[in-house]
Amino acid sequence: MKANGVTKLALVLRDTPLLVTQSDWCPPCEKRFALGWGRNQVDEETLALVRNASSNMEAPTDVLVEQLSPVLCLLEEGVYLVSRVPHSPTNGAGKPFWELSTEPRPDGYVADLGHLELAEGYPAFLLPTQSFEHCNPDRVDQYRELASQGQPLGGLALWIDGFGSALLDGHHRATAALLEKVPLTCITIMSATEVEVGDDETVVRLWDARIRCSKLPPRAIRAIEAPLRADAPNLPRVLEGAAGYRSSEVHASCDPSAMTAAAAAFPTVRVLAACSVAGELNDQRIDELMAAGESRAPELWAILQALIASSDPRATALALRIGEGHWPDLWTDAFRYLATVRTEQVEDFFIQFLIRDDGLHPRLQAIADKYLARNDPRNRD
């Protein structure tokens, strides 16, 4: 549905909207997601199809495709790839995956890096298809016990856009994975970006990868004929109704504060997007970018984020160089990272900054003040 330059779409399972997406007219602009009615409103027969396919972590992929056939028949006509993909059980912005409102709000699933080009994205973070009200702490504890023993939990996900996948089944398993600070490997259904049909070869394009069908094992390819569909639900009614829907069935909540704390252990969508566009991370390239000046700030920012994400010790050295140079667009990110590093060199950097700055940059000053206050022996237990 499109109105006033805004496009709205819904992920519908049978007649039940699970997710609503909203974006404006330009492809790289910000997309917004909202929770729909929730999978608890889906008929039991359809839910059984989803459950049966979600947690088989041992079967080969070609067997999985056969088991997934009833679910694949519910999708729009097209070419899909099925694979096991690890997902961070977060929203991509440092919060638990449950953090999704019934009103479309900005989030991090589609990575607009501001001064960086839009990263293409791939399945990495999870969107819930039911509300947090239905989180049962007893079931979460059962799955946490399995996760602590190293057993794979599994889930079923459908890649939607950017770095976000809709979690069709496995919300309690994802919550357990979050609290145990481990990724959740989901059987993930991904729509092909493009299909190239030539005289001698058919090529499926998935993001940057080009997969030649002739190179795939014959058992890995399935042609599935979907049954005749009923008329599609009234999309405007679905979209308008989803935002106002609330369930009256409420279970005891899991601990939101513990989940929020655990979410900090996972990378954010901005970091993954930066890593995907950073390119070479060698010292020579870093020196060349530093010498080129502010016009190369986007590339330098991406490299800094990639070094931080990979725990590369060069991240501290680069952040210090940025902080000491004229890189105003990068200062905030560099300061925030340095505030996590406990060394005499970093402490001296913040002291010298406060002496030189004389209150000209209050946001940076606040970061430095907080860092030095934590390091002050008088504030230690």
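Next protein, fold it too.
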Amino acid sequence: MVPPPPDIPVSGLAHTEYYLNHWPWMWIPTEYTGPFTVGHGIHTLHYRSHDQAGNTEPYKQTSFCVNDFEAGMMREEARMLAALKEVIALRLRKDFASTLPIVKVRFDYGALVGQGEPDWVTLGTDTNGDDGWEMIWDTVAAKIPDGQYLLRMTAYGPEGFKPMGGFYPLEDQPIYTEKLTVTVCNIPDSAYLFELAAPAEADRGGSIEYSVVFQNRAEQPLSKMKLLCDLDPGLFEKITVQDGGSLDGKGMPNWYKEVVQKEETWKVHFTGITQQEIRPGTVITVQCMVQGDPVAQLLSDDPATQQEKDYTAVTVRLLNGVIRGTVADASKAEPLSATVTAAGPKQYTALTDSKGRFLLDDLVPGTYTLTVSAPGYIYSAPSGPPDLPVGGTGKTVFADFYMTARDGIPPVSALELSVKALVDGNLARIRGTARDEMPGSGVDKVEVRVQRRKDLQYWNGENWGKDEKWLPAEGTTDWTCFLGDLVWDPAHVYAVSTRATDNAGNVESPRVNTKTAGLPAPHLLSPLNGAVVTAGSGLAWSQVIDCFYHIQIDNDGAFGSPEMNAAYLSGNEITPQNIGKGRFYWRVKAQDWEKGELQSAWSEIRTFIIPLAGDLDAGGAVGLHDAILGLQFLGGLKPGSDLSRGGDVNGDGRIGLEEVIYILQWVSRLR
């Protein structure tokens, strides 16, 4: 773009004329902002403007270079490293050279003295550009003295080449030139120790202590030493420079020392506080550079790595995390006492508090498998131990567990018909039922075993044998077992046993049903042992085929004079009437239909409570503690919320008149 000259107020701008390199003069009415079609190379634009009065300004010119960004002899990185090497490689990139019809490239150098052109010395000429145009300058072999030098690279075009409309009749006419200033220092890198040390890790928002050491091992002192640390100031909240240094205009720590003597060690420090918002896992890289006389430029090294001249890297630590949550009963939503374990890079354990809450803190980043152990419970939601990632951001991970009471009670199975009915009817198909009481997990399977008592052999589905065999039944709560070609012999005594297995793996003890003797005892089903029930609640027990039942209910468990003693009951359920209130003990046994004198053993004994009026603590009797609870209700107090008002006031371990008097005084506002 050619900017228009300033407006001339006398007559105004008439036109502008220009030419690019050797192009003809172009006339433009006012100004020109369009493109110039040029190729790679150095171009010169000449232009001048005329006003309406015929005045013409002197010629002006501007030069510019068109390339592919990386074109040229050396890039910035190469310039930086050139002064550190004893051998300097000069190179014209092949991709750039391909844009020009180069036939050869000559390389020259000259010592910089004053402001004028140096006395050029030719290093050599490269006439083969298949792999790029290059030349090696071995400053040691050539015994080049220390100092600053100007390097020149000149490309030549073929005979008759016309760059930008021009004409070069000779082959050795240059078509591209580039120059570069370098410093030659013959002292090897091994003559210096230059290290930048820092911790391998740092916390987000934490402090990083940097230590820089430069040691002169050369045989001469170094002067005018400038030390600069290259870093990204945006990663730090604050940088503090020590040992006489400062921050430059770009926020980089720097120091200056007039002389570093032979064998002298120059040691400086600076501290950076990382940003609070920096992402964990970020790697902060820093490298220091020193310049002076005769050292052109040296780069620091990280002493913690084997690589030389590398950046010193500090990784922002992943923050330790937290997993918190609750453990509760899935059906009652009540808190549970449980142990929560997180297994991952490390293992952590926490106990729940009175509200079912747990806290696992200071967890190193990683993925953890959480397991919950609550006595008598299994997983409900989630259905098993989940895997939770702790990402190192410091954020809390939440996990709530709802547990289902573990099914530790086996199911109960029963035959639909008695063994006598099976034998008399010669039935080869046995039917029955099974159920799994609360907190049941459900019936998984039912099995049947048929034994001939005379020779103690078992039916395996095809024939009789000595090996015990359980035959699978089809169905669960209502099931059928097919016996194949079994033919019952009325002259024999048979024992048909059933057993059920629930989904929790609980296996029922085999329930043996015989043709004549050996009645099994019933199992008490409901209510649960020790349950508090209302008057008129029913009692239930398991069924025994072809039997009546005998039930006893007693208030002291001795069954010497039971409150209810009923025999020959036809069903396996009953609702007691007029037995009073309090704590009761009960049991049941079976009686054969045909032979009432043939009875089973008594079942296990269970208890249930029908609360007395005023028995507020369900203790089976009304006492002073119930009176205190009643007074608390009258006084608007939450019962038991303050032990000093509803409990043992004098600390004698009993509830007596002193406690009643105390609560009366409280209700009357005398306390």
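About the second fold: The radius of gyration is 51 Å.
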